[in-house]
Design brief:
mainly alpha; 82% helix
């Protein structure tokens, strides 16, 4: 499969977002303000939730209708499998390593896999010229994920610097944590070239994986400490921006 320039941009946008965030370690102070951190987490939740609904679940349902499959069956199956896939992956990784810094990097990387998969899957739908999925909608999803990846890059890089890593090494590891996204996107493209009939299942699979990250990793962080109202503000901004992008574009 030949990837044209538009497809390449869509695949690498999330990595660019992570990289921008990682570069902030070169300029910012050693810590992120607590209120700003809450706002960032809320923003990420909002973007991921809106993306999961409008970019993944709804197209999955629409494709199931056109494939003459039971409308809910592919979407529910994919959703459940996506959630349990992340449950298993996180269980394995927790057994492998107990270092808190490595855990946070690993958590971001695991979190990035379904995002990359979602971008690759919806891009495949656009390349197949499916009625409900266009290149614009694929770009919208990729851009939304890139925006919420900016603070994630900083969240990886800054704690590494605090632990004594050099700025350059912290930057490199931050960028590296985002490389999984284009890799997952390309793998999804290659897979669905031959198995496009599974697209409704995998759209909802990616959505389920995102739901797991939201519920298990992000929401608990909004409740830690004070200033939780800023999480709500961030969520409202992120959800609204992504919803408008998905619906208008």
């Amino acid at each position: 499969m030949v990837i044209n320039l538009d497809s390449f941009i869509i695949l690498v946008l999330p990595l660019i977002g992570t990289s921008i965030g990682s570069f902030l370690v070169l300029f910012l102070k050693n810590t992120i303000n607590g209120r700003l951190n809450k706002c960032i987490i809320g923003f990420s939740i909002g973007v991921m939730l809106a993306s999961s609904i409008w970019s993944l679940l709804i197209p999955s349902i629409e494709l199931s209708k056109k494939n003459n499959a039971p409308i809910i069956y592919p979407t529910v199956c994919g959703l459940v499998l996506g959630i349990f896939f992340l449950v298993i992956i996180e269980y394995i990784t927790r057994k492998i390593n107990n270092n808190s810094i490595n855990k946070s990097i690993l958590a971001i990387s695991i979190h990035n896999f379904p995002e990359g998969m979602a971008v690759g899957t919806i891009l495949m739908g656009a390349l197949l010229s499916l009625d409900d999925i266009t290149m614009i909608s694929a770009f919208s999803l990729s851009l939304g994920i890139a925006l919420q990846n900016i603070p994630e890059g900083a969240i990886v890089s800054i704690p590494l610097k605090l632990k004594g890593y050099s700025k350059k090494k912290s930057l490199f590891i931050g960028i590296l944590s985002g490389v999984i996204e284009p890799i997952a996107g390309i793998l999804s493209l290659l897979f669905f070239k031959s198995f496009s009939f599974l697209l409704p299942y995998v759209l909802s699979f990616a959505s389920g994986a995102m739901f797991y990250v939201i519920i298990e990793d992000l929401i608990p962080e909004t409740k830690e400490g004070e200033a939780s109202i800023f999480s709500l503000i961030g969520f409202t901004i992120g959800f609204s921006i992504m919803m408008v992008m998905d619906v208008v574009l």
